[in-house]
Specification:
With 491 residues, the chain is mainly β. It contains 6 helices and 33 strands. It folds into 2 domains: 4-374, TolB, C-terminal domain (Neuraminidase, 6 Propeller), CATH 2.120.10; 382-485, Immunoglobulin-like, CATH 2.60.40. The strands form 7 sheets. It has an 8-stranded antiparallel sheet, with no helix packed on it. The protein has a 5-stranded mixed sheet with strand order 10-11-12-13-17, with no helix packed on it. Mean pLDDT is 93; it is low at 1-21.
Length: 491
């Protein structure tokens, strides 16, 4: 188990009070979700940057070192994998998809379609589908989605610098069709960490804390949307940027996001805020659980990695009055390196991979693949939180104890927001303490409806349910969760 002291030592020597409370639940988590090492030859120096399932059950890995590797054997009880190199000589493969016999690799410089025409298992044709963004700086990362049902790939371009516009189209996101036609769909990206559909099929990306981003977040790539960082505005003078229309209104420094959403029509609010260090520090790689229950009780939820803290989290989203919002939940800590990619295997396990090269990482392994697998035991967890006009509905993985669940004092809520500002990150501000007035339990004991006095639109609502017990007497594995309430439902 990684202790809080060790986490402090591995987190860029930051003072302990700045780290917040780490989960401290790795040993308990292992009863329900074990971490299995997937042996990889040391000489390979694997640094997974993206992953992609293949129709035959194998899995492809795109690496930071520029390879596409084909892996089999990940689902064996004692994995002894076989790895072959399909392609090499690429540049930071941070997005990988597969469709109709071709890989679609998002590199720093371009989206490339890669095929094997002679059938020898090695790539022999590389077609540059799109390179409208170019490359001018080492810090220009491009993150790509899996191939979508319509054949398109979505690409989010991180900035060269947090505070300066140094290269064309940096801070924009594009939809690129199967024949290479690019459309700018959004602007204002700062530093993406992955692009993928949410559980409802809408395209999202993950954003890191920084200027105009008080904390890490999950954001909807709404066509025509502005994600918040105005340093990209020169891109609106370029051909694809002009097609989006005029530049948005400049956001006001040291405002609040909800205030600016009402003032700037194009501004898209964060769908899910991940409170800094309490719920990740550099979130990455969203993937939806479609395993049909083989991964436990979280079907159709998002699973995300975190690079800095070497852990995996869950998230759920919902559309309320035309705006996406939702919650994040702890899931599994104690992984070996910084997570850049997660993907579900054919056998219903979650493969994780990454690196510890470039930034401080809690996990101390240079190169590794690790598999998270469900042991078959259902943990007592907050399964999901959804918003209601008068409060929240909270669903659990097991029936709750009627005595503790029926007591409004069991549900301790607090709220906060961030300063929307050009400076790096933000403290949590404008705190309030809502009160749970009444609790209604469902007949099966797995759902509670909370009537809450003091909901605050635009705030993150923190749930601390430590007093709650399961009907069997057990405690929650993780007692806290965070719901980003952009809109209070009308009905």
């Amino acid at each position: 188990m990684i202790t809080r002291a060790l986490a402090v030592a591995l987190s860029a020597a930051l003072p302990a009070q700045e780290l917040g409370d780490m989960w401290g639940t790795a040993a308990a988590e292992s009863e329900f979700y074990r971490i299995v090492d997937v042996p990889v030859p040391d000489a390979l120096a694997l640094e997974a940057g993206s992953m992609c399932p293949l129709p035959d059950g194998r899995l492809a890995i795109g690496t930071r070192r520029g390879e596409i590797l084909i892996v089999s054997g990940m689902d064996a009880v004692r994995p002894k994998i076989e790895i072959t190199t399909f392609a090499s000589g690429l540049d930071e493969v941070l997005g990988l998809g597969y469709r109709d016999g071709a890989f679609y690799a998002t590199q720093q410089t371009e989206l490339t379609r890669i095929t094997d025409h002679n059938g020898d298992g090695r790539a022999d044709r590389f077609d540059n589908l799109c390179d409208v963004w170019g490359f001018e700086h080492y810090h220009e990362f491009a993150w790509g989605s899996p191939v979508q049902p319509d054949g398109s790939v979505w690409v989010a371009l991180g900035l060269s610098s947090s505070y300066h516009y140094k290269a064309d189209y940096r801070g924009f996101a594009f939809r690129i069709t199967a024949d290479g036609q690019a459309t700018a769909v959004a602007s204002g990206v700062r530093s993406a960490g992955g692009v993928a559909p949410n559980e409802h099929g809408e395209m999202f990306y993950v954003e890191s804390q920084g200027p105009w981003n008080g904390s890490c977040s999950l954001k909807h790539l709404r066509p025509g949307g502005f994600m918040g960082h105005p340093v990209c505005f020169p891109g609106y003078d370029l051909p694809l940027g002009k097609a989006m229309g005029p530049r948005p209104t400049e956001p006001e420094h040291r405002s609040r996001l909800l205030t600016e959403v009402e003032r700037v029509a194009e501004l898209v609010p964060y769908a899910v805020v991940f409170p800094y260090r309490r719920m990740g520090q550099s979130i990455t790689a969203p993937r939806v659980d479609r395993t049909g229950g083989r991964f436990g009780p979280f079907e159709n939820q998002l699973f995300l990695g975190d690079y800095s803290l070497s852990l995996v989290m869950r998230a759920t989203t919902e559309l309320v009055d035309g705006v996406w919002q939702g919650a994040c939940y702890p899931f599994r800590e104690g992984l070996g390196n910084g997570i850049l990619a997660v993907e579900f295997t054919a056998g219903g396990k979650l493969l994780t991979g990454g690196t510890n090269r470039g930034w401080p990482v809690r996990g101390n392994r240079h190169h590794c693949l690790e598999r998270i697998e469900w042991t078959g035991k259902v943990p007592f967890e907050i399964e999901r939180i959804t918003a209601r006009p008068d409060g929240f509905r909270v669903t659990f993985t097991q029936p709750v104890d009627e005595r503790t669940a029926g007591d409004p004092a069991t549900y301790r809520l607090s709220t906060f927001t961030h300063i929307f500002q050009k400076f790096y990150g933000s403290p949590e501000v404008d705190q309030t303490t809502p009160t749970v007035k009444t609790v209604t339990l469902s007949p099966d004991g797995r759902t509670v409806d909370l009537v809450v006095d003091g909901l605050v639109a635009g705030h993150v609502h923190e749930f601390d349910l430590a007093p709650l017990r399961a009907r069997t007497g057990g405690e929650l594995l993780h007692t806290f969760a965070f719901y980003t309430l952009n809109k209070i439902p009308l009905q």
